[in-house]
Design a protein that fits this description.
Largest sheet: 8 strands, mixed
Structural class: alpha/beta
Shape: globular
Length: 664
């Protein structure tokens, strides 16, 4: 009997030990694998340069419903959620002194189905005490099985160099080609129409611009195209922006309150003008380049600002910076998703991580951060009938580094480098891998070191209804966004449609060659009183495909082949490579160029035809349509002839075109 009791005691003890072991195993399984590699695989980014007291958590599909229910229950009763309904995770929250647990992307009833399909409803923000060790907190959260990813909330920065310098209304005299519109300061916007006026800078070169003069003859914008300026607050009542501000038809029904012209995602309030910080006019300056109102007799022009008849593209202000705050991954992700949900076709993003902070596409894409998922969501949304998805455009950065900064460097996004008023790369611009295309961004030291002026920078709108000069890839970027908006406007007006990839390819091949100017050196200031010399040869073949040309974009939208013509020399144009790969024996019988176009291009004589080639000489940069008459098919001596046809080509005249044009 005693032995039997002892045996039962041993069996019960074994069962108890087994039960304890099972409970322990189950707890470990619930908490997830505890190895360093397994934990590290769930972490996105690092604590360096991350917001303190905050982490982003992406819950598993099965767990997110419980989290959502727990959070909604707390908020319905007027409280702040601090528990997830997941025991192990809540233990971590209690340990770090949680202040709030909330969904990163608020519920927008009209877009909730798409949000859930993209998995964006599974992102949550955890707020806790600032003195908590971020890395330790993230690792403890990553141990939980129901947690898929934990993201450090990294900070990004604007991509301008220095503050806006208010315009003094006595600078550069009017340029003859700037009479397209009646805006009094268009003549100072060399970055749109550069006539080579030496009052800008003694070495300025005509044609170092985005070629607006000819483009505006065809299209000036369309209010059906919305560009989201993801930046500082845009001054919505600026006299040169107000008419082109987007007005939200769903104000207050988007998950945000008071979002008439956009929203302040930094403070979770209506838009708020910055009053301090390094560059509070940044967003307003960027917006003016895209779509300041044209032909209104006021201030400056915007690339897609219309013709003064309420026909410009619309600007949505998605505020991610306010004074010295903002720019985090979480704030940016919310702003970009808002842009997608409210009709933006282009996101204009003059910000990013410092060059080298993210080293590769695989590193940026690893784990799919909230910010990247938001951009992917934006790209998948068709908000403009002319293109199948959203176009993200980022500044390359101003670190003078031989790589682009991210996010712009990522393979699916456009990264913009900066050039000066003489075609040379700007002294600050990043270049090299990850860079896709160049545009004017200004170069302060060109005019400043020579004459103390600011005229070699970019002129646009700034706060308090004023105008001012700024420089940076931040200023180059909206030139590409503005030209892209102009291209979509023209596509809408001509009934053309493109896939997203097709339109991006169109943008990146509507360029002029910058490589001839990537030689020699230029002077700049490393710091106050410390001069530096920039070796321009390092930028050769590193600035992207070339510098963007608005007229070429419109021609490519229209389906007209662009022909590079060098200015200032007699040129023999061989059309055969542009006429297809069939029977290339077409005979050229004539060429027609409008007299006003010939005058603008400085053509003193009509083109001639010799040996089935066209010989012409253009002395001025510019663009024009040439109608070329051809004879398709062969004839004979009995009077049989080929069929006469006419094909339009666009002549793009620039100084020092390389023989290959630099175009794809």
């Amino acid at each position: 009997m005693k032995r039997t009791k002892t045996l039962w005691s041993l069996l019960l003890l074994a069962a108890a030990l087994a039960l304890v072991s099972c409970v322990k195993d189950a707890t470990e399984e619930a908490a997830g694998p505890g190895t360093d590699d397994a934990i590290a695989s769930k972490l996105i980014f690092s604590a360096e340069n991350a917001v303190k007291g905050e982490l982003l958590v992406y819950f598993g599909e099965g767990a997110s419903a419980n989290v959502e229910s727990s959070v909604m229950q707390a908020t319905r009763s007027g409280g702040i959620a601090t528990r997830s309904g997941i025991g192990d995770f809540d233990a971590v929250l209690e340990k770090i002194g949680v202040k709030a647990l909330q969904r990163l992307f608020p519920i927008d009833p009209d877009n909730e189905e798409r949000t859930r399909a993209a998995g964006l409803h599974r992102w949550y923000v955890v707020e806790f005490n600032d003195d908590v060790d971020l890395t330790e907190a993230a690792r403890n959260m990553a141990r939980i099985a129901e947690v898929n990813r934990v993201q450090f909330n990294q900070q990004m920065k604007k991509a301008n160099v220095g503050k806006a310098i208010p315009l003094v209304e006595t600078a550069v005299p009017a340029q003859t080609r700037a009479a397209v519109f009646n805006d009094p300061n268009l003549s100072k916007q060399w970055h749109y129409i550069n006539t080579g006026d030496k009052a800008v800078y003694s070495k300025v070169k005509a044609g170092a611009d985005v070629n607006c003069a000819e483009a505006w003859q065809l299209c000036t914008g369309d209010p059906r195209v919305i560009v989201a300026v993801v930046d500082d607050c845009v001054q919505w009542d600026h006299p040169d922006l107000a008419a082109n501000m987007w007005v939200n038809p769903r104000e207050g029904q988007t998950g945000y309150t008071g979002d008439k012209y956009g929203y302040n995602f930094v403070d979770n309030t209506p838009l708020t003008i910055s009053t301090s910080g390094e560059d509070p006019s940044h967003g307003t300056h960027v917006a003016g380049t895209v779509a300041a109102v044209n032909n209104n007799g006021v201030g400056v022009c915007g690339i897609a600002g219309g013709s003064g008849n309420n026909d410009g593209v619309k600007i949505m202000s998605c505020q991610i910076f306010h004074n010295d705050k903002g720019g985090s991954s979480a704030i940016t992700a919310k702003a970009i998703k808002y842009a997608a949900d409210n009709g933006a076709a282009i996101i204009q993003c003059s910000f990013g991580y410092p060059a080298g902070a993210v080293a590769s596409d695989s590193q940026y894409a690893a784990g799919a951060s909230a910010e990247k998922q938001a951009v992917d969501y934006f790209m998948s949304k068709q908000n403009c009938p002319a293109v199948s998805g959203g176009i993200p455009i980022f500044a390359a950065g101003n670190d003078l580094a031989n790589v682009s900064g991210y996010p712009g460097a990522y393979r699916d996004y456009i990264s913009v480098t900066s050039m000066s008023c003489d075609y040379t790369p700007a002294y600050y611009t990043n270049y090299g891998p990850g860079c896709n295309i160049a545009a004017p961004g200004g170069d302060a030291y060109q005019s400043y070191l020579e004459s103390g002026k600011d005229t070699s920078q970019v002129l646009s709108t700034i706060l308090n209804g004023r105008y001012g000069w700024m420089q940076g890839t931040s200023m180059a970027c909206p030139h590409v966004s503005g030209v892209a908006a102009l291209g979509l406007s023209y596509a809408l007006q001509t009934g053309k449609t493109f896939t997203r990839d097709q339109f991006i390819a169109l943008l990146l091949t509507s360029v002029n060659d910058i490589n001839p100017y990537c030689t020699g050196t230029k002077q700049y200031m490393i710091a106050a009183g410390v001069p530096g010399t920039l070796d321009l040869s390092k930028h050769k073949n590193q600035m992207g495909t070339g510098y963007i040309d608005a007229y070429q974009v419109l021609m490519n939208v229209r389906g007209i082949t662009c022909l590079p013509i060098p200015a200032g020399q007699q040129y023999t144009l061989d059309l055969q490579p542009y006429l297809g790969s069939g029977n290339l024996g077409m005979k050229i019988t004539g060429i027609e160029i409008a007299p006003e176009d010939m005058a603008r291009l400085g053509m003193s004589a009509n083109p001639t035809i010799f040996s089935n080639k066209i010989i012409l000489k253009c002395t001025q940069p510019g663009s024009a349509i040439a109608r070329i008459k051809l004879l398709a098919g062969n004839g004979n001596s009995n009077g049989m002839n080929g069929m006469p046809i006419t094909k339009e080509f666009a002549l793009i005249v620039r100084t020092n075109h390389a023989q290959n044009g630099g175009w794809l």
